[in-house]
Amino acid sequence: MKGNCLIAQSGGPTAVMNNSLYGVIEAALLSDRVEKVWGARRGIYGLLHRDYIDLTQFSAAQLRTLRSTPGAALGSWRYKLTVDDVERIISNMQANNVRYFFFIGGNGSMQAAHMIHEAARTKGYELFVMGIPKTVDNDLMYTDHAPGFGSAAKFLATCLVDIGMDISSMPKSNRVTIVETMGRNTGWLAASCALARRQIPSVPQLVYIPEIPFSVEQFLQDVHQSYTQSGSVLVVVSEGVRDSSGQFVAGESISLDAIGRPQLGGVASYLASVIEKQLDLSARYILPSIWQRSGMLFSSGVDAEEAYLAGKHAFLYTQQETTGKMVNLTRIPGHSYAVSFGTVPLADVAGKERLFPLQWYDTEAKFVKQPFLDYVSPLIQGEVWVPRDNGLPVYESIVL
Q: Which residues are annotated as a binding site for substrate?
């Protein structure tokens, strides 16, 4: 099938999602089945408004810079699709002879890709749809891990090492430090901070994830005990921790985002104030915030390469007339780390979440177990070379 190729990015950006974009572009430009390679500006917005940008207008050097550029170079947009929206997207694609469509995103994006795939099939329009996994939360089903997670995990673990060095440098001046990580419903990122113990055995002491009900009373006991033993405490808490009734711990200050999800953040500041009031200890909180998903200088070489290969494989699968699938990664058993790439139906991953395995968490110690550290350690290996000008990184943004 000869036609045009269209790529879109959606959801929260990551440090390496542009590697997937580059992987698709590189493979598409070599195909005699593709006439034009387009990107949809701002993700779903571009799909709805037929706002396509010709990606062949950029030089080979500009496109290669995508491999060391964080964020979403095409732009992203949070929006919940309706049935009418999907019909409009298909009509736009038909009008531009788009035959190959690639959606880089998380579980919500896979839901949108599935809707587009089903609508095209119902309409009788031959469109090859492939989802490319992307998320720092690592909550996609049926893949060993998602590109984006390894770099965010490496960034956070690096932060914890640096923070630990500061705390150990001033043992009499630091009391309780709380680091809040992303993780709406899952604790993969918070758990990854435990990697810091390999460099500084004394930190972090306590890690809290959303999969385990959070008790403020028990938390205060944990902090008091840890402080009594070491004189300072470094806590990691996921933004999405909930109490036994399922309510967010910092729920009173939470509003909703554009697609109706709670806008999280604030649990660390809340817990710091509780510590100061209840335990009479000095407490501070640190918010890596969006930096944890866009920190290119601390990104993982393994993660960047896997993101690139996921994009490249996605295109190659469409050339085998594969459609309605998401690229997934399977870890190959053995002493050295390696993965293979395959596919899974979009319907199986759309809108679903993979939680952190409870068998990898020690509920008594409030810490992770060795099997998780063995799982995550290979994902943070290697570096990404970032070009610099005047001492600062040089990035490429297609939407500007």
A: 135-137, 182-184, 239
For residue range 163-179, list pLDDT tens digits in order: 999 988 887 677 899 99
Q: Cβ(161)–Cβ(169) under 8 Å? A: no
Give Cα separations from 57 to 61, 72, 398 (angstroms).
12, 18, 10
Tell me the sheet residues that pair with 176: 233, 283
Question: Which one from 51, 54, 137, 243 is the annotated catalytic residue?
Answer: 137
Q: Where are the alpha helices (DSSP H) in 279-334?
A: 291-294, 301-319
Annotation: binding site:
12, 107, 135-137, 182-184, 239
* Main-chain dihedrals φ then ψ at residue 294, nearest 5 degrees: -130, 10
Q: Please give the domain boundaries of the chain with CATH numbers for all domains.
A: 3-135+297-352+381-393 (3.40.50.450), 149-293 (3.40.50.460)
Name the CA dihedral angle for 288, 290, 292, 298, rounded to a multiple of 10 degrees. -110
Q: Which residues lie across from 392 on neighbouring strands? A: 389
Q: Is the dihedral of CA 147, 153, 155, 158 positive or negative?
A: negative
Decide: residue 108, CB within 10 A, 0-12 exposed, 13-18 middle, 19+ buried.
buried
The answer, as to whether pTM is greater than 0.85, is: yes
Return all residues near 224 (Cβ < 8 A) that are at least 6 apart: 279
209, 361 contact by CB (below 8 A):
yes
272-316 residue pLDDT tens: 999 999 999 999 999 999 999 999 999 999 999 999 999 999 999
| Residue stretches of the chain with pLDDT short of 70 | 172, 251-265, 399-400
Amino acid at 10: S
Specify whether the CB–CB gap between 275 and 283 falls below 8 A.
yes
Query: Which residues, at least 6 apart from 226, have a Cβ–Cβ distance to it below 8 Å?
Result: 205, 206, 233
Annotated catalytic, 280? no
